[in-house]
Structure formats: C-alpha cells, structure tokens
Amino acid sequence: MSRPVIAAPAGAALLARSAKRFANETPIGRKRRARKMARELAEAHPDAHCELDFETPLQLAVATILSAQCTDKKVNEVTPTVFAKYVTAADYAAADRGRLEEILRPTGFFRAKTDSLIKLGQALIERHDGELPGTLDQLVALPGIGRKTANVILGNAFDVPGITVDTHFRRLVNRFGWVDEEDPVKIEFLVADLVEKRDWTMLSHRIIFHGRRVCHARKPACGACTLAKLCPSYGTGPTEAAPAAKLLKGPRARDLAAHAGVDPGLVPAAAITTPEAP
Ligand code: SF4
Predict the structure, then answer these.
(1) 236 phi and psi angles, rounded to 5 deg
(2) What's the pLDDT score for residue 10?
(3) Which among 7, 15, 10 has a CA at the least distance from the CA of 236?
(4) Distance (Å, rounded) from C-alpha 220 to C-alpha 253?
(5) Other residues' Cβ atoms within 10 Å of the Cβ of residue 94
(6) How distant is the alpha carbon of residue 81 from its chain centre?
(7) What mean pLDDT is reported for the chain?
(8) Ligand 1 atom closest to Cα of residue 221
(9) Is the pTM here over 0.85, yes or no?
(10) What are the boundaries of the signal sequence (predicted)?
(11) Is 166 a catalytic residue?
C-alpha cells in the first residue's frame, strides 16, 4: 500500500480537510471503514499480543493489577519473583504485607497493589474455591479488578472475546472517528458494535500496539501510518515521510514504515530501541 500523496501544509487546515472527508459518513460506512482499518492493523502488527508475561489466569490477574500506572516491561521484571513466591490464591491471602510490599515497590502504588492482591486472594478462596472465575460479572465483583482488567483476563486467559479500553485505545478510536466519547464503558459498547466479536481481543492488542508505536499521544507519525487514508485525524502529527518516520518506535519500526509506503531507511536506529509509551 502506498502512502497517500497529500501536499504538505498547515496542520490545522490539513486536519480539517481530513475530518471533512468523513463528516457525512453513514453508520454502515463507519462500520465498513472500521473493519478495513482493523484489517490494516492486523497486517501492520502481526506481533501484537498481551505484553504482560503470565502462565495462568491468576498470574494474568496479578500482572494486570500491577500494571496500573506502570509499564508492562517493569511489571514483567517483578512478576517472576512474585509468581515464584505466591502460587495460589491462598498464598496471596496469607501474604506477609510488608514482604509483598517490598517486592511490589518498583511497580509504584505498591501499598494499594499489595492490598488488592491480598484481598483478591481472600475473595477467591471465599467465593470461588481459590480459582479465578471466567465471566465478566464475577470478575468485576472481585477486589482490584475493574472492567478493563476483567476484559484483559477474559480475552487472554479464557479465550472469551474482550475489548480492553486503556488510554491508547481510547485516544485512537476517537482519532479514528469510530467514537466521539471518553467514557471507557460507552467506548467498549460502541466499538463492540463496529467489529466482529471474534476480533475484539486481538483488535485491542493491535490498537494498543499502534498507539505505542505509531499514533502517539502528543505527536502521532501520520506521514508513516498505514491508516492515513482512512483516518479523519490524519494531519494531527507530521505528514511528511522523513519527520514522521523518526517518530515510529519499537523493534519493528522499519517494517511499520515499509508497510505505510515509507522508506525504512528514514527510521533512525534509535527509534528501534527507544522505549515505547507505557
Ligand atoms: S498516526 Fe495519524 S493517521 Fe495514523 S491513526 Fe494516528 S492520527 Fe490517524
């Protein structure tokens, strides 16, 4: 796919022109465009996956709780110690608070996270024989588990399709013009209506990957984005290839440039090793 050729200029004017192209879109038109964008994202991010390391549903619940206000990378550095020491719900329920706090300290908000894990262990023993339940209603009733965490657990540990509305997802689906909404639960239902249920979990990963690597909060790489032709927010970031390519991040930054029809040689080596947004 080649990058759209749109003359350089003026951010605001260009952005207005992009938005105007989709201003009269019908609901069915939006659904078709959303599905096309979802297919583009699948091609652009074949490596998309849950970036938290885990082997069991309980481990994923713990890792997701620890990921609040913390990078997945940092969580993955801490969880091997946690998982070696605390294997069952009973282990968390009986944890020595001070010792667990010390282990969790690098993830931030460690007192609150310790509290959540101990209460989660206790609730699992009291209500679910120590096992993590596999339904949204049961999960969100547990301490420390909100709707976002529950959907991560359902989608990745139980193979039940779930849409994860994190900060990247919320920003991107608004930029995509899929929604005009900030409330995570409303966003979840609106996006659920646009794409096939079987795609929910992977679409969430791909959108989050795109948000971390291409469509950044402050300066999205519009000129090196595979979604440019389909995005009403094209022009939010630089649209020329060279400055946009410099904004790409992650180990596949050059592949992402090539996929968008941009010379991969424009991606500096540092982009490949620069840490992505959490
Ligand atoms: S990088 Fe630009 S073109 Fe791509 S999705 Fe984000 S706002 Fe749209």
Answers:
(1) -65, -35
(2) 58
(3) 15
(4) 13
(5) 13
(6) 25
(7) 93
(8) 1
(9) yes
(10) none
(11) yes
Rounded distance between C-alpha atoms, residue 255 and residue 47, angstroms: 11
pLDDT average, residue stretch 199-215: 96
Distance (Å) of CA 243 to CA 99, 168, 215, 263, 267: 48, 22, 14, 12, 9
3-state secondary structure of 178: coil
Alpha helices by DSSP H, listed for the chain, are: 11-21, 27-44, 57-66, 72-85, 89-93, 97-104, 110-128, 136-140, 147-157, 167-175, 184-194, 200-213, 241-245, 253-259, 269-273
Which domains does the chain possess? Answer: 11-48+165-273 (1.10.1670.10), 57-157 (1.10.340.30)
Whether the CB-CB separation of 130 and 88 falls below 8 Å is answered with yes
Q: Is 70 annotated as a binding residue?
A: no
DSSP class of 221: -
Locate 182 and state its tokens.
């900030």
Answer yes or no: is pLDDT of 153 > 50.
yes
